[in-house]
User: Fold this.
Amino acid sequence: SRHGEGTTTTAAVFASILVRRRGGRVAVVEANFRSPAFDTVFGVKRNGGFAELVQGSKPLAEVIQTCEHPNLFVVDCGHSTLGPSALFDAPGLPGALEQLREHFDFVLFDLPPVNVYSDASILGPRLDAALIVIEADRTRVPEVERTRRTLERAGVKLVGAVLNRRRDYIPAFLEEML
Assistant:
């Protein structure tokens, strides 16, 4: 719904779990041009990425980067003179998505907050499904509902939500008794 709820970390953890438990090749695509963080989260270089793939200035082989987990690949956001919304509506987007689908078993996109930017409403309907990341004790129910309605109106298929940064207020010894 808003900045700082942990979508990048959630995408990274989810991708590593997919690689370990399901197998196959997994790509994580940074589609958050507003506050990119893949260079710190995955330790990859910013040398061209999703923007260049969409614009056709670099092929998939040049924008894919490996990371520490085998079969886990990363595509940073790259650089574009177009704004993110224009890039997600560019003629090269369907071809870029098709290339990613052909080369990977799972492709995860890290997008900026829905209630702040329209990027997820533009790109989301072209993806198979979406998860909403919600920060425990910070994000309020009306914000989550607004996010859900916005995505559903745009034609995004929601499959669930991730409650991130959940805190335990019950001591462990009491929780074991419950």
The longest helix spans residues 7-21.
